[in-house]
């Protein structure tokens, strides 16, 4: 039976569209099926970090997304009376990805920017109002059935990816269970349109008030968000009443400065799918994991999934990698996801204390730590890739390769483009595979970043570095050894597409 595409993605949100763009860039034919007719028009995710902006840059959407986003200098956890318990600083400074550390977004604007790029890809297409009803898997591929405005339709693909959200029909149909990490807190989310920014906070805040833990954060496209923890005995009807919302906002003195856009109750959960791959079916984004919002990593985790999975699917589709490469997807991503969920749960448990005595003890401990210089202030960092397609034992293997910025503001990735890079001393006789571009340091394209690249190689005592398409370091050292390991080692034996 003929294939309609290499990769069929269920879910046209940020994760699904980014995955489609990444997979298409690296050689796959992709179809995205989305059950809704149009982009959901109201805000949802609030934040993406520098690494996710770099991923958006790689698919051509970063500038449009940055134009609708806002930055802030820090993220403060405060006591009820305004003392700083912990401050995460540097959010507006450039991170290793070459973009600000924290970018406060408007999700509909992000989705529009991504879909604009998708519309320009001949190898990828979006089918709206296509709802998955079932699928059947065989040795060669997956046949999916949809309810559409034109009636029942079928599509056949080599791989099916569920990027279809928390309730994921793909996950349910695959019979994949979730590990519940035991975090379940109901919160009211209030999104507003801002008319007078001078009357609103300029930084992101967590108010650790046992009487009512509260979040207050910037958003993109002229918006601001408050989140209020629901207290025992409160109902959704009570806390979403406009009079109750006005009462909750009264201490912020924003009457007349904002207009209510959305109110909704969310349960903040922490869960991870037990399998991210089952045969020819994979999960990404909220279908694979759910993260409490306190670290701002929910959407970020899904976009990182897309970057990790996209290049592997593309290389498989174009004949440059074997199916075994997909076994490394969960190996690489799950430890990172569990670390970010752990951080978010730690933050949430710090915020969500409603017992006054316990809150007072927390405040005393955290204020003392801050006074002693032992507070974890500063940027949040995440673990490197520890296994998968990396050259274990070589310098910097699994670390994140920085996007250097030239004096004129030019970003390294824009000069080099997608794909893998071998930067530094070239191989004397080892063949360079077609998915890797060899770039000697005297290449004219590297001139604006030559000093930074020289410095990176010197710091790692390496002659060359092989950078994966998702900008993690495969390894650093001797180019011939790196290329041999890339071709024959951790990606698995290369094979023609079957």
Describe the structure.
By secondary structure, the protein is of the alpha/beta class. α8 (298-317) runs antiparallel to α9 (327-351). Mean pLDDT is 93; it is low at 493-498. Strands 1, 2, 7, 8, 9, 10, 16 and 17 form an 8-stranded mixed β-sheet that branches. Strands 5-4-12-13-14-11-15-18 form an 8-stranded mixed β-sheet, with helices on both faces. The chain is built from 13 helices and 22 strands. Among the domains are: 5-44 and 106-179 and 270-343, FAD/NAD(P)-binding domain, CATH 3.50.50.60; 384-498, Glutaredoxin (3-Layer(aba) Sandwich), CATH 3.40.30. β13 (214-218) and β14 (223-229) form a beta hairpin. Helix content is 29%, strand content 27%. The protein has helices spanning 14-25, 50-58, 62-67, 107-118, 169-174, 236-239, 242-249, 298-317, 327-351, 356-371, 412-416, 450-459, 479-488; strands at 5-10, 30-34, 47-49, 74-79, 84-89, 102-104, 124-128, 131-137, 142-148, 151-162, 178-194, 204-208, 214-218, 223-229, 258-273, 277-278, 281-283, 289-290, 420-424, 436-439, 464-467, 473-477.
CATH class of the domain at 5-44 and 106-179 and 270-343: Alpha Beta
How far apart are the termini?
13 Å
CATH A-level architecture of the domain at 5-44 and 106-179 and 270-343:
3-Layer(bba) Sandwich
As for the CATH topology of the domain at 5-44 and 106-179 and 270-343, it is FAD/NAD(P)-binding domain
Radius of gyration: 23 Å
Write out the CATH superfamily name of the domain at 5-44 and 106-179 and 270-343: FAD/NAD(P)-binding domain
């Amino acid at each position: 039976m003929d294939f309609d595409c290499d990769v069929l993605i269920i879910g046209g949100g940020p994760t699904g569209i980014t995955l489609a763009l990444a997979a298409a860039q690296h050689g796959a034919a992709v179809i995205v099926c989305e059950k809704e007719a149009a982009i959901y028009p109201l805000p949802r995710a609030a934040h993406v970090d520098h690494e996710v902006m770099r991923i958006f840059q790689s698919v051509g959407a970063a500038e449009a997304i940055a134009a609708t986003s806002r930055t802030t200098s820090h993220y403060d956890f405060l006591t009820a009376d305004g003392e700083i318990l912990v401050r995460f600083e540097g959010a507006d400074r450039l991170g290793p990805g070459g973009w600000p550390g924290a970018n406060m977004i408007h999700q509909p604007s992000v989705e529009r920017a991504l879909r604009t790029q998708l519309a320009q890809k001949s190898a990828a297409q979006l089918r709206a109002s296509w709802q998955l009803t079932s699928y059947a898997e065989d040795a060669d591929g997956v046949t999916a059935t949809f309810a559409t405005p034109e009636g029942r339709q079928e599509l056949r693909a080599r791989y099916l990816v569920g990027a279809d959200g928390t309730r994921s029909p793909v996950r349910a149909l695959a019979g994949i269970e979730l590990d519940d990490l035991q975090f379940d807190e109901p919160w009211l989310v209030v999104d507003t349109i801002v008319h007078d920014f001078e009357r609103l906070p300029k930084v992101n805040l967590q108010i650790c008030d046992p009487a009512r833990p509260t979040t207050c954060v910037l958003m993109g496209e002229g918006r601001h968000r408050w989140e209020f923890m629901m207290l025992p005995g409160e109902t959704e009807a009570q806390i979403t009443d406009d009079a109750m919302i006005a009462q909750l906002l009264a201490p912020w003195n924003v009457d007349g400065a904002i207009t209510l856009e959305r109110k909704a109750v969310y349960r903040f959960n922490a869960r991870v799918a037990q399998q991210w791959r089952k045969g020819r079916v994979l999960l990404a984004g909220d279908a694979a994991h759910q993260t409490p919002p306190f670290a701002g990593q929910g959407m970020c985790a899904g976009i990182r999934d897309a970057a990790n999975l996209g290049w592997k699917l593309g290389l498989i589709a174009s004949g440059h990698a074997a199916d075994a490469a997909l076994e490394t997807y969960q190996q690489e991503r799950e430890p990172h996801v569990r670390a970010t969920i752990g951080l978010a749960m730690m933050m949430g448990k710090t915020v969500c204390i409603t017992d006054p005595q316990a809150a007072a003890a927390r405040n005393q401990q955290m204020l003392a730590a801050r006074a002693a210089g032992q507070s974890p202030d500063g940027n949040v960092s995440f673990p490197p890739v520890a296994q998968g397609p990396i050259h274990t034992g070589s310098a910097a293997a699994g670390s994140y390769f920085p996007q250097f910025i030239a004096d004129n503001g030019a970003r390294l990735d824009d000069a080099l483009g997608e794909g893998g890079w071998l930067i530094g001393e070239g191989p004397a006789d080892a063949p360079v595979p077609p998915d890797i571009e060899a770039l000697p340091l005297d290449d004219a394209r590297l001139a604006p970043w030559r000093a930074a690249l020289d410095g990176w190689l010197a710091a790692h005592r390496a002659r060359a570095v092989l950078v994966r398409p998702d900008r993690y370091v495969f390894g650093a050292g001797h180019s011939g050894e790196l290329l041999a390991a890339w071709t024959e080692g951790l990606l698995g034996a290369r094979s023609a597409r079957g």
